[in-house]
Amino acid sequence: MRHDGRSLARAGTRLTLITSTTGPRPADFTDVRATNLAVVLRFVRENAPCSRADIAASTGLNKATVSSLVADLIERRLVRETGLTENRVGRPATMLVLDGSPYAAAGIEVNVDGLTVVAVDLSGRQVLTLRKSFPGIGASATQAVAAVAALARRTVNRMVREERRVLGLVVAVPGLVGVEGRVRFAPNLDWHDVDLAHDLAAALRDPEFPIQVDNDANLGALAEHRFGPYGGAGNLVYLTGEVGVGAGVIVDGRLLRGGQGFSGELGHVQVDPAGPRCGCGRLGCLEAVAGIGAVFGRFSEGGPAVSPAVVAPEIDEVVRLARAGDRATLAVLADIGGSLGKGVAILANLLNPQAVVLGGHYVPLAPWLIPAAEAEARVRTIAPDAGGCRIVASTLGYGAAALGGAARVLDFIESGRLPTRP
């Protein structure tokens, strides 16, 4: 049988919608209505403005069911009507768009030099962005919990003043985060086995919204997949450009986590056996030869290490020298880019992504890193033209992982965990 996004197949008495999308779909679940509400909500997000007839034709749900579901979503203030359109065959149709004005989804990124919080409404529009300095590399996990909790309270209070209800908070951490949300190891923060979600819930006195924790690269990838220029790509990789180098991997539209949630540690793949020692203790890891720390190490000539607190000014100075055509600077960046290309080639050979997105501090350096990285990746990838993989700079700014945390909350809502009526 030939299947497409609108085909229906009957197996016994069960009717199942067969679709190529990776999101929720009508199915014979216990709470089929919640599932179908999520289907409609996601369709409106991806196709707004759209009509009830559009929803019925594309999802396979009958018109009466769609009308009931839309009425429910309007009552919950997740969807709203936005007038009529006559640019179609037949009678004018009432069009629908996302509402979500009473709600917010929040993400907080913990890094070695600061905390970033991003809150969005259900359409993905940012309603709050804050960045706060934080000595993460020298702070204990207890101090970090207190700092994150304070920022979370500030965020919730701000949303309350705007008459928004926070639906969830996801915290991004640069380290190994298990599928249960426990931070097993964050070397650049010197954390070991920290139950951050539990500790935060206790610090916030068990808030009404759920708190979850995930790896920063995973959340950066979710942000790129939902909001970035390559959002339509089913296969992409996001590389963090902070003190560490992590990879968030999207395969066939879904985040790749691995058996215990520890996938994506590309920064600790050895690319130069004779290379410098990495923070993990091994020699020649990608992070040691192509991370932001490696950039500064090449310029310091054995001088004192660059403090995380002054990374941004140092990056600005490197950019200034590169723009001025300083030969030594250009040579270092080309060499770093070539090492980065070795890591990209590993990804291209194993995963064949459509794009590898460079984030964080890689972004301002991208004009000089990408040409060398692409050249190296083409040489080292078996498939011609690196299998069609493109290396691009993120357009989401330094808060991509925090934005990805908010995106994950939105994903939960669209999977059927809808808020109660306001």
From TrEMBL:
<keyword id="KW-0808">Transferase</keyword>
<dbReference type="InterPro" id="IPR043129">
    <property type="entry name" value="ATPase_NBD"/>
</dbReference>
<dbReference type="GO" id="GO:0003700">
    <property type="term" value="F:DNA-binding transcription factor activity"/>
</dbReference>
<comment type="similarity">
    <text>Belongs to the ROK (NagC/XylR) family.</text>
</comment>
<dbReference type="GO" id="GO:0016301">
    <property type="term" value="F:kinase activity"/>
</dbReference>
<dbReference type="Pfam" id="PF12802">
    <property type="entry name" value="MarR_2"/>
</dbReference>
<dbReference type="InterPro" id="IPR000600">
    <property type="entry name" value="ROK"/>
</dbReference>
<dbReference type="InterPro" id="IPR036388">
    <property type="entry name" value="WH-like_DNA-bd_sf"/>
</dbReference>
<dbReference type="InterPro" id="IPR000835">
    <property type="entry name" value="HTH_MarR-typ"/>
</dbReference>
<feature type="domain" description="HTH marR-type">
    <location>
        <begin position="40"/>
        <end position="81"/>
    </location>
</feature>
<keyword id="KW-0418">Kinase</keyword>
<dbReference type="Pfam" id="PF00480">
    <property type="entry name" value="ROK"/>
</dbReference>
<protein>
    <submittedName>
        <fullName>Sugar kinase</fullName>
    </submittedName>
</protein>
<dbReference type="InterPro" id="IPR036390">
    <property type="entry name" value="WH_DNA-bd_sf"/>
</dbReference>
